[in-house]
Amino acid sequence: MKNALAFALLCWASLSLAQSGAKYTISGTVTDAASGETLIGVTVRAENGTGAVSNEYGFYSLTLGEGAHTVSFAYLGFLATTRELVLQQNQKLDIALSDNSTLLGEIEIKAEKREEHVERALMGVEKINMAELKSLPMLLGERDVLKTIQLLPGVKSAGEGNAGFYVRGGAADQNLILLDEAPVYNASHLLGFFSTFNADAVKDATLYKGSMPPQYGGRIASVLDIKMNDGNNQKYEVSGGIGLISSKLNLEGPIQKGKGSFLVTARRTYLDLLLLTSSDSIKKSTVLYFYDLNAKLNYQIDRRNRIFVSGYFGRDVLRFGSGSFGVNWGNATATLRWNHLFSDRLFSNTSLIYSNYDNNIAIQFGANDFRISSRIKDFNLKQDFQWYPNSRNTIKYGFQIIHHTITPSSVDASEASDLVRNNAAQKRYGLESAAFISHEWQAGKRLNLTYGIRVSDFVVLGAGDFYTYDAEGKILTTTTYSNGDVVKNYLVPEPRITASYRLTERSSIKAGYTRNAQYLHLLSNSTASNPTDLWMPTTNNVKAEIADQVAVGWFRNFGAESGYEFSVETYYKNMLNQIDYRNGAEIQGNANPEADLLYGSGRAYGLELLLKKKTGRFNGWISYTLARTERKIPGINNGNYYAAKQDRTHDLSVVAMYQLTPRWQLSANWVYYTGNAVTFPGGKYEVNGSTTYYYTERNGHRMPDYHRLDVGAVFQAKKTKRFESEWAFSIYNVYGRKNAYTIMFRDSETHPGTTEAVKTSLFSIVPSVSWNFRF
Amino acid sequence: MKYFLKPCLFLALPVLLLFSCDQEEIIELDLSGAPAQYVIEGRVTDEAVPFQVRISRTVDVYHSNDFPAVRSAVVTISDDSGQVDTLLETTPGVYETADAIPGVSGRTYTLQVWVEGRYFVAHSTMPALVPFTDLRAIPLPFGGTNTLVMTPVFNDPAGLGNNYQFVQSNNGVRLPNIFVADDRNTDGSQVSTLLIAPEMETKRGDTVLVEMRNIDRATYKYFVALDASNGNGPNASVPANPDNNFEGACLGYFSAYTVQRKSVVVE
User: Which of A312, A503, A637, B99 could potentially form a cystine with A642 if both were Cys, beta carbons 3.0 to 4.6 Å apart?
Assistant: First the structure.
């Protein structure tokens, strides 16, 4: 502890030491010249090698000595720009970069700007290139951020065609998914087949698999930070797409040219129209669709102030038989943000965020009319400061407060209902707060350091009855709290540090340690992603989940102009207070789900390799993960470690894109992974008059290996100044591999008196075509 | 409520499969090697029938469905009034009391089994009988068509802790579905339990017999777990052997329960 303190003091001292001589600051915003969209992660560098990176609002601040400087701005996919300037005072320098798509295939970015991969003290971070995303083949032609990240090392798909993902052995609910800073609780549509993010409206998506910067917290496996486009502030634009199962429309334009813009995007599926063609009357009367609506507004009030208002609303609707039985679920988020510059070196963002997720099942028959619903509602205040004292140091600090209201599944029946009664499960309240500080420090020519701490706290609030349980899950005591009472408080310090050391110009080693805490838990007993899966807050019984992760990596760029990136990362993660159900737990309509929970620990470790070719007509990557994920929960598997269901030994993705001609782009990806860990019977017996299966070991078996090849092509139709369009073709599962979706056991129909294992696969060859336009 | 949610997801999946090309294929898996386990199923009822215990063994998954009877076990059922009965093996693996004296509500029964050097013991208390007041068939709209669902009606007595099991037979054929209910959401009120069996259609003209049992908590939990582990669908739990009330590791259960029956011809 003493050493840590001394170290911290030393680091702080470095801030002031670097202050000698007359220093001035260049600061401003980097934008896309064509659309006025701010660019995130642009490398800004002076001739002496010191540099900065534009933040999530496109803002950068670089402090240099008095005199003449050459400052360059580089961003992948854009033409690098260089400015000569003589610094005699603080200077504002806004930069607009031009897209280099007109010069496809040519290498325009100078090599030294591309060493960021080896240089920065960031590990386990993947930035999704939105241009790549648009050219990859996808199931039914739906471009999808969540499915694209599944092709990266350390990230696994939750199943065939599923948008859910597992990161470094974490469960699906252990990923924090942020849309313009608002947490999204259920990031998928249609039981997991499509993600809630309309890829056309996404500007930037960054996934942190480890070494999360301290401004993020609340989930123990990963952070996926998605930023939506702000809207074109130069000209009005309409774009959209017509696909096999959905259509999209995107409207954007300036409110006042160069100062503010708006953006509205909408997407709706029309699966139910396909159902209409069915001869089956049940399918015909079935309603099934989802829609998304994104809206955003931003305005630069003056040089120092900018505001953003954004919202997302998405919903899935599933109805059978003229409304007598229906399910609908969805997320709604609203964010109000205010960027303020206190000085050229101190950037501030204040966010007010509302987030809501709910699912409803409505059933009507005879006199009975009732609804089963559950909901999570959050109010969130977030304050971030970013201070750029000099070119070697960046300090980020701030705080966050979230008020959660969680309504587990409760039944609301009409008075006339004779079969069903009101059953209002208790609402749960919690106050999650955190304060954080981090320091990015270029400690030497070779050493970069990012370290900091997040201190998170969760207060379990009344009103409500809280219970204690015995070992069998029977209630021992009941304590009643009234509104606002503190039931229990959890405080978790989350230290984080990452260091990178440059071995050579183009290679480095990195190491890091990260702790994360999680206070909301998704209870899911099922194999599919159900809208009815239950979110559960931390209570007196359910403890905060904590994960400690250490990682080491080697990063190397090579080839002409550093066109290739290679990295190896290994990690070990220890997880505390993991939750699982007791055998035979009742989940739905259980007013007291805590009685059916068991708690234990988990561990995950693995090796991730990534080789990426970033430039040229032919580009793509190969990613491989070797991993193990285990849980140890007293009461399951005799208290021994067992493979978590997302445990997959090998996971390989090969992604290739090729610019055939200026108008044709081809792409392909092939994935292979070891089947999930599952529990198959080891025997059978007869009880209660039926054949029943006997299980020997939790998750002791494997699903068959999974592999699949997808190919795609994008054709750029004739482009005029006013109108451009493209055709996107794709074939999912080209060689029609029948991958197992489920395996179940049943009494054989063909050989009565015996048992057979039945494999169900979902998608064989699925071709699709879509047309996208912009004017 | 789980009766509703289960069919809901049961129906959602086929809809998804509709726009995919769902295909089934029978595959061979390597599932051998688990040592055989004892399976004990014991019942004591308030009817004038012998107490019955069946003992068998597990077999490999790919073995045929004939389950070896376990013979020559020593089986006793005793109660807390001091009565001890030794059961006789009437057919291979089936052990019964000699006389047919009904069990009594409130009494705790103990089943003891000695077999091949192993010893198993379980206790079960026969709950008080809650009158089975009515049996109706009501139409429920699932999948756009009205499906007839049998609905037993009874008045749950005030105070938590009543557990129920229903066994339905259509035209003399027993449905394999497990129907159990407790009173956590319905304590002290008139209850109409829906016996939803989506894959078994009840039609007009069918003679339907429903047996209502009052069971103890351990039996209730056993059947809930058995039902969850049987379900292979999307809402099924992670498969596991249900916990039971036996000391000594074996499969099965021992239940002392009351029995009432109602039969209707569905109109």
Answer: A637
Residues of the domain holding B101: 38-125
**Same domain (yes/no): B119, B154:** no
Residues A369-411: tens digit of each pLDDT: 777 788 899 999 999 999 988 888 889 999 999 999 998 777 7
User: Taking CB atoms and an 8 Å cutoff, what residues of chain A touch B183?
Assistant: none
Q: Count up the domains in chain B and report the number.
A: 2
Q: Which residues pair with A718 in a beta bridge?
A: none
* Average pLDDT, integer, range A420-442: 85
pLDDT at A522: 84
Using the Cβ of B9 and the Cβ atoms of chain A, whether some distance falls under 8 Å is answered with yes
Q: CA–CA separation, A663 vs A99, rounded Å?
A: 17
| Complex-level ipTM | 0.90
For B225, the 3-state DSSP assignment is helix
- Please name the residues between 153 and 182 in chain B that touch chain A, using a CB distance below 8 Å: 174, 176, 178
Cβ of B59 within 8 Å of Cβ of A685? The answer is yes
User: In chain A, what are the domains?
Assistant: 22-111 (2.60.40.1120), 125-224 (2.170.130), 225-774 (2.40.170.20)
Q: Does B240 touch chain A (CB under 8 A)?
A: yes
Mutation pick from A694, A697, A732, A766 vs chain B, by most beta carbons of B within 10 Å, is A694
Q: B25 vs A324: CB contact, 8 Å cut-off? A: no
- Tell me the CATH number at B101: 2.60.40.10
Question: Which residues contact residue A303 at a Cβ distance below 8 angstroms, ignoring those fewer than 6 apart?
Answer: A92, A341
Of B8, B16, B138, the CB nearest to A190: B16
The answer to whether position B11 is within a domain reads no
Q: Does any CB of chain A come closer than 8 Å to the CB of residue B114? A: no
pLDDT in tens, B4-46: 444 444 444 444 544 454 578 888 888 877 889 999 999 999 9
Beta bridge partners of A480: A465
Residue where a domain stops, chosen among B104, B125, B146: B125
Whether residue B133 is found in the same domain as residue B228: yes
Contacts of residue B223 in chain A, CB cutoff 8 Å?
688
Considering the domain boundaries, does residue B247 fall inside one? no
Residue B50 lies in a domain: yes
What's the pLDDT tens digit per position in A717-744? 887 878 888 898 988 889 988 888 888 8
SS (H, E, C) A503-546: EECCEEEEEEEEEEEECEEEECCCCCCCCCCEEEECCCCCCCEE
Cα angle, residue A515 at apex, residues A509 and A518 outer, rounded to 5°? 140
With H, G, I as helix, E, B as strand and everything else as coil, classify residue B35.
Answer: coil
Distance (Å) from the alpha carbon of A680 to chain B's nearest alpha carbon: 8
Do B52 and B75 fall into the same domain?
Answer: yes
Q: Does B224 touch chain A (CB under 8 A)?
A: yes
Residue B229 backbone phi and psi in degrees, to 5: -80, -20
Q: Are residues B118 and B158 in the same domain?
A: no
Q: Is residue B21 part of a domain?
A: no
